[in-house]
Amino acid sequence: MSRTHKVVCTLTVALALALASIAGAAPPPEERCIAAKLDAQRKKRFCVAGAQRAAILGKTADVAKCTAKFDKQIAAADKAAAAKGTSCRWLDNGDGTATDLSTGLQWELKTDDGSVHDKDNVYTWSAVIDGRTPNGTAFTEFLHELDGGLTPGGVATPCFAGKCDWRLPELGELRGLISVPYPDCTVAPCTTIIGPTAPAFHWTRTHLSTEYTYAVGFGNGIYGNANNGLALAARAVRTAD
């Protein structure tokens, strides 16, 4: 999420809460949940960054304590929303991305328009079947274009959604998108994230070995190893600011 858009989203939620308070009405449960989770994620990032700086300086630091404290607040917001019959996991940023308020990850939203974001695009992890080097089209074309490089046709592109640090997700991150009741993407909703998803295996950046990398199948909800030279789908992610 860009800094400007994040500020706009935060101010929009805050304004809605303030107006509801002035009017004497309780803000909608979803808005309260969003506000609470945005605040917890912001404080969590600040706390973790402070602990990491302390560690660099040789001081006592406890990143896990920061994480546990604010994850508890996030869980409490979800519980309160669920008690009111609602939820607030995803925040559509309006720029082709959505932020997972539960994990703090910003995800690329897939499309069905033939662009670099098209759900049916496939890429290799390595340039050769048993390759160990991340030089396949997932890196040289897909992520390269998202991070402000050139299109396959040689056209310069700006960084996607104003961010130049897009990457492939870890295995656990990508598996977290699967909708447990509907793991098959031929039956909607197969994922929790908004927008389309192809019923295909998608690359992660989690290695099984030097020649194999884990991939998550959205056609069956399972995961397994894939040879690095295979052509699979991909979805980009980054840590939200």
Radius of gyration: 19 Å
Mean pLDDT: 87
Number of domains: 2
- Runs in which pLDDT lies below 50 for 5 or more consecutive residues are 14-23
Give the class from helix and strand content and strand pairing. Answer: alpha+beta
Q: What's the order of the H and E elements?
A: HHHEEEEHHEEEEE
Number of strands: 9
Query: Which strand-content bin applies to the residues?
Result: 5-15%
Main sheet summary: 4 strands, antiparallel
Distance between the termini: 7 Å
What is the 3D shape? globular
What level of helicity do the residues show?
A: 25-40%
Word description of this protein:
- By secondary structure, the chain is α+β, with helices and mostly antiparallel strands.
- It folds into two domains: 3-88, no CATH class; 103-239, no CATH class.
- The chain contains five helices and nine strands, in the order H-H-H-E-E-E-E-H-H-E-E-E-E-E.
- It has helices at 3-22, 29-56, 63-83, 137-146, 171-175, and strands at residues 90-92, 97-100, 105-108, 123-124, 201-207, 212-217, 223-227, 231-232, 237-239.
- A four-stranded antiparallel sheet has the order 1-2-3-9, with no helix packed on it. Strands 5-6-7 form a three-stranded antiparallel sheet. Strands 4-8 form a two-stranded antiparallel ribbon.
- A hairpin with a 4-residue loop joins strand 5 (201-207) and strand 6.
- Helix 1 (3-22) crosses helix 2 and helix 2 packs antiparallel against helix 3.
- The chain is globular and about 55 Å long.
- The termini are close together.
- Mean pLDDT is 87; it is low at 14-23.
